Every structure is written in C-alpha cells, then in structure tokens.
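Hi again,

Forgot to attach this to my earlier email, sorry! This is the prediction with iron/sulfur cluster bound. I've pasted everything inline since the attachment limit keeps bouncing my files.
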Amino acid sequence: MTATGPRNILAARLRDVSVRLSLRFGRPSRSAHQTEPLRNLILTILSQNTTDANRDRAFANLARRFPTFPLLAAAPSKDVEEAIRAGGLARAKAKSILSALSRIREERGGYTLDFLSDIPLAAAREYLTSFPGVGVKTANVVLLFSFGKDAFPVDTHILRVTKRLELVPPSADLSRAALLLEPHVAPGESMPLHINMIRLGREICRPRNPLCPECPLLPVCPEGKRRTKRRGVPPR
Ligand code: SF4
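Structure tokens for the complex follow:
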C-alpha cells in the first residue's frame, strides 16, 4: 500500500471530519458514569434498541433493586426483567446480563472485567462479543469508554452519516462499518469522533431532511453536495 493508497485516504478523510466536527461541537471529554467496565457493559446492553432516557430509567431501577453485582447475579430472571422493563426487550436483555455475570464470576472468580485492560483490542473485543447479546457495538463502547482503547463504536447515527459521506459502502451494517473504520481513526480520536458524529446525526444529519446547508461536513460530503445542488444551494 502506497502513502496515497485508499487506506491513507480514508484515514485522512476521517481526520478531516473529526477536525471539522470538533470545530463545530468542541472536544467532548469522557463521561464519568461510563468508566466502570462491568457497569458500563450492563448499561450498554440496556441501551440496545431504545432511547437514552429509557436506558437510564431501566438502569436506575435495576441499580435500586439490586445494588451490588452479587445481588443482581443471584436474582431470578423474571425480577431482572421487571426491573429493566422501561428499556424494552426486557427478557433478552435480562438473559444477556445474567449470563455475562455468571460467566465472568465463573471464569474470573469475581465480578470484574479489569483484566481486559492488559489484552489487545481485537482479543478484548472477541472476549466480549462471545457473550450472548453482546455485539461489536456494545463491546466497542465498553472498550472505548471504560478502557480508553482505540475501539470505534458505530451506532445507527454514525452508520447513516458515514454512508452519506461515502466512508463505508451502502451495504455496510453496524459491525462491518465499525471494523472498516476503526483501523483508520487516529489514535485518541475515537471518542471525540464517536460522540461528535452521533451529535451531528441527531441534530443535523437527521434520517429525513438532513440540514446540509448548516452542516460543517458539507464541503467534504458527496451526499450533501448532491442534495444542495438539487435544491440550488451553493456548497460552502
Ligand atoms: Fe449529512 Fe448533509 Fe452533512 Fe452530508 S452534508 S453529513 S448528508 S447533513
């Protein structure tokens, strides 16, 4: 691969996107509530297919009813389901949480994922994705926010934005997009890029009627240029 090959072009485009987003939204810092790895794994399982507000309600109920990992691990599945009902998919999520806790206890002799900090990113992801109900996105959130590894979680907002930017193929799903992009994100850039791309997807690059003329990525976005050309808005 030459210095101007597709890998380097993708890395350069991602760097440029990250700079443009940071200029618009600032440089986000790590959220304190996401730092403890096992807590973060449970929170991220609860976040699947629901809103942040419902996830937080489900997590708060769960923590109130089962304030420690041993209490939660010993709880009947139906009680866990009831506690997390606000987050939806309660049966599947309860099963994932209880099965992760049971296996971690069995393999590590306690409720901790701290050992993952000494394991390379790919192996740590392989371990987490071996749990039922834990995909690449959930694993990457834990590895990025709890361990500071250079994992790049892709959610539906990031998938939409990166497809419109033509950084990933139109057929890519969440996992494929994450694994395609991650090696090209500069070290230390995963977290600000992840947070700022989600913000862009929520506020500007919305599923319907994206606000391309207001978007900081318009000068580097093929889809934005097509849309603004159709509407007669000159690209900045
Ligand atoms: Fe999305 Fe439009 Fe921005 Fe492109 S220019 S990222 S399509 S809002």
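The two ends are 33 Å apart (CA to CA). Residues 58 and 84 are 4 Å apart (CA to CA).

That should be everything now.

G.
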